Each structure stands twice: as structure tokens, then as C-alpha cells.
């Protein structure tokens, strides 16, 4: 007996809106203050992982990971977050990525639950700026988990919050760590971006997303 699709769980950065460049600008400023240069190649490695994991990768890239105490690392992470939060003021409903608003409306009309699985502690603030808070039935963020992606914990927390099983869900991600987390959780995975691998459905852009496409992907994978 086929399992009905009951929920779609979205990543935030790169799926609902694109704040990746804002993260990069904040990290680049913080890195520059400790004489580390980072580029877009390093930035790609930071997608989908937590703030502290991102900082550790930046410090390792500069060969200075052992130079900083945990307190100093916390201060650097806080500094980055302050810069990033300030940059969020420029977000507005027009910052929603193509196809997402229409898909959220389709899901709502069809009675399919909508969840968020974002490692960003600023997720509620971002949804509010995009005027999307009411479109999400449950939001799992970094405050609710112990382990970051690619561990599946955040997607499992989102399922529990929505009252559904992973088998009843589809997850949408733009980062390789996120795809691995979705797959490990037992959901079907949709990847946004041509460089990803391992997704049940891979799309070049969010503009290709639609409810009929998600339903057909689910049917083809049963």
C-alpha cells in the first residue's frame, strides 16, 4: 500500500532564500580580522553545516586552529553572527527564491504539512523578514539539535514536530551534507544544484519545483 505524502521539509539557505552570500561576506570579514583569506571555494565547504563547524574549517584552512581557545572561538562566531544578522535587514518577500512561494501555496491548498530544517539559529528571523512564518507548520533549527548535518537529527526532529514519519516526507536541500542527512533519515531527497549527488531527484533551480513533480517523484520511488 503506497504511503501518502504528508509533509515536505525544506532547508532554508539556498532553497527558500539565498543568504549564502551574506554568510560568506560575514565570514570573510571575520577571517580577514585574524589574517585569513577565504574564497568562494572555501565558502562552498561551509554550506549546510553549523556556525562552529564553519569556523573550525576556516581556522584549519588558515593553519591556526590550535591558536584559539574555545572562548576566543565563541567570540569569533558571535562576531560573525552579529555581522550576518545586520545584513539580514535587507531581506524582504522579494528575496524568496523562484518557485518557492507557489509551491508553499500548493502544499497548503493540498493539506500537506510544511516543515523547515535549518542549522541557522536565525531561521525564525529570516522567515519573518520573508513574511513566510505562517506558511511553516514546524521549524527545526540549531537550537533543537545536538548534531549538525550530515547527521539526520534535524530532519528527524522536524518529522517529530510535524507528527509524521520520514517515509511520509520529502526533504529539499541545496547542500551535499543536507542530501546525506535527508537520505540517512529515510526520506526521499530533492537536491537543488547540479553539483550534488545521491538525491532521488536533482534539479538545477528551485523554479523547477512543483507539487505534481514531487508527487510523481514519490510515486516513481515507491
UniProtKB/TrEMBL annotation:
Q: Which InterPro entries match?
A: B-phosphoglucomutase_hydrolase, Beta-PGM, Beta-PGM-like, HAD-like_sf, HAD-SF_hydro_IA, HAD_sf, PGP-like_dom2
Q: Which cofactor does it need?
A: Mg(2+)
**Protein family per UniProt:** Belongs to the HAD-like hydrolase superfamily. CbbY/CbbZ/Gph/YieH family.
Q: Where is the signal peptide?
A: none
Q: What's in the keyword line of the UniProt record?
A: Carbohydrate metabolism, Isomerase, Magnesium, Metal-binding, Phosphoprotein
Q: Which Pfam families match?
A: Hydrolase
MF GO annotations: beta-phosphoglucomutase activity
The family database entries (PANTHER family) matched by this protein are listed as: 6-PHOSPHOGLUCONATE PHOSPHATASE (PTHR46193), HEXITOL PHOSPHATASE B (PTHR46193:SF18)
This protein's name: Beta-phosphoglucomutase
Give its E.C. classification number. Answer: 5.4.2.6
The EC class name is isomerase
Q: Which reaction does it catalyse?
A: beta-D-glucose 1-phosphate = beta-D-glucose 6-phosphate
Entry keyword annotation includes Metal-binding: yes
Amino acid at each position: 500500500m503506497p504511503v501518502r505524502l504528508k509533509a515536505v521539509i525544506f532547508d532554508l539557505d539556498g532553497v527558500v532564500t539565498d543568504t549564502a552570500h551574506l554568510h560568506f561576506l560575514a565570514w570573510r570579514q571575520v577571517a580577514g580580522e585574524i589574517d585569513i583569506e577565504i574564497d568562494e571555494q572555501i565558502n562552498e565547504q561551509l554550506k549546510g553545516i553549523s556556525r562552529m563547524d564553519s569556523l573550525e574549517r576556516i581556522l584549519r584552512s588558515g593553519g591556526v586552529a590550535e591558536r584559539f581557545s574555545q572562548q576566543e572561538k565563541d567570540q569569533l562566531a558571535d562576531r560573525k553572527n552579529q555581522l550576518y544578522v545586520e545584513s539580514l535587514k535587507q531581506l524582504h518577500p522579494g528575496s524568496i527564491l523562484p518557485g518557492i512561494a507557489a509551491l508553499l501555496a500548493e502544499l497548503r491548498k493540498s493539506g500537506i504539512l510544511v516543515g523547515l530544517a535549518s542549522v541557522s539559529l536565525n531561521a525564525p528571523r529570516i522567515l519573518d523578514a520573508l513574511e513566510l512564518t505562517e506558511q511553516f507548520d514546524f521549524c527545526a533549527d540549531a537550537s533543537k539539535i545536538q548534531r549538525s548535518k550530515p547527521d539526520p537529527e534535524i530532519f528527524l526532529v522536524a518529522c517529530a514536530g510535524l507528527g509524521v514519519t520520514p517515509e511520509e516526507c520529502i526533504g529539499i536541500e541545496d547542500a551535499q551534507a543536507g542530501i546525506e542527512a535527508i537520505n540517512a533519515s529515510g526520506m526521499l531527497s530533492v537536491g537543488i544544484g547540479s553539483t550534488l549527488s545521491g538525491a532521488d531527484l536533482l534539479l538545477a533551480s528551485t523554479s523547477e519545483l512543483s507539487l505534481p513533480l514531487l508527487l510523481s517523484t514519490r510515486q516513481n520511488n515507491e
